From TrEMBL:
The chain crosses the membrane at residues 60-87, 108-137, 157-178, 185-202, 231-251. Keywords: Membrane, Transmembrane, Transmembrane helix. It comes from Clostridium intestinale URNW. The keyword Membrane applies. This is Sugar ABC transporter permease.
Length: 260
């Protein structure tokens, strides 16, 4: 069975499982923020001062900063990937796939590709809901400018989203590597700790090596004040190297585990 066939099987299972709906939570939170801002129950501030009117892109940027900064997106990705891999390994559901596929690394690759697809779909839905909410409730009021582009750098926002995607891929590979020998709950907790430790270490100035990870490039103070293409590319390369190493470790551990 080819990797693409595993991918199709995983995508089918993703859309069938009710727990996949947790990736809709960011969009629901975006809608709540929009309604709260419209009613005055939620106050949104920029880095320097209280902004009285937002463009669509600026408004989405604020929502994105809030959700990614708190790690909400990462938490949901960790939870779903723990269900997807560790849960199946320890409940024995993955046995049939192992028998059909043969080579276990194809299962890892197929599951990883399906999770990446789900991340992209979740972020796309978040953008659509935020944009629709803006033009339905904000743009025609004093709280919005009615324009799409604003003061926020589109390039910086795109790089922030890409950094979050790469960080999410890193966290998924962590769940795969440790989920072989641990249950879903422990896999979720350990990976969650890794995520928040990474976020904390990226803010320490004396740890220069963290600049070569996506944890650092997610930070807004980097994106808007110290942004350089070269440093950002190095961060991507460093993260991909780390991801590749963890994937190989996960495959090695998965090949040795006894599937019952």
């Amino acid at each position: 069975m080819r990797i693409f066939e595993v991918y199709k099987m995983e995508m089918y299972k993703m859309f069938k499982r009710k727990n996949s709906l947790i990736l809709v939570i960011p969009s629901l939170l975006a809608l709540l923020i929009t309604l709260g801002y419209k009613s005055g129950a939620v106050k949104i501030t920029s880095e320097e001062a209280l902004v009285t009117a937002y463009s669509c892109l600026d408004f989405f940027g604020v929502i994105w900063t809030f959700l990614s900064g708190l790690g909400i997106i990462g938490i949901l990705i960790i939870l779903l990937s723990s269900f997807q891999f560790s849960g199946e390994v320890h409940e024995g559901q993955i046995k049939m796939m192992v028998l059909r596929v043969g080579k276990r690394e194809k299962i890892i690759y197929g599951k990883l590709l399906s999770m990446i697809t789900m991340i992209i779909l979740s972020i796309g839905l978040l953008f659509l809901v935020s944009t629709a909410g803006y033009y339905m409730f904000i743009s025609s009021s004093d709280l919005g400018t009615g324009t799409f582009l604003g003061t926020m750098s589109e390039k910086a926002l795109i790089f922030s989203i890409l950094s979050t995607v790469i960080t999410s891929i890193f966290l998924i590979t962590i769940t795969y590597a440790i989920g072989v020998n641990m249950n879903m709950f422990m896999t979720f907790i350990i990976t969650l700790v890794v995520m928040y430790v990474g976020k904390y270490l990226s803010g320490l100035e004396n740890l220069k090596f963290m600049k070569y990870t996506s944890f650092f490039s997610e930070r807004l103070d980097f994106l808007f004040n110290d942004f350089t293409n070269t440093l950002f590319i190095k961060g991507f390369l460093g993260s991909f190297l780390l991801i590749a190493l963890i994937v190989l470790l996960g495959i090695m551990r998965f090949k040795k585990v006894d599937i019952r």
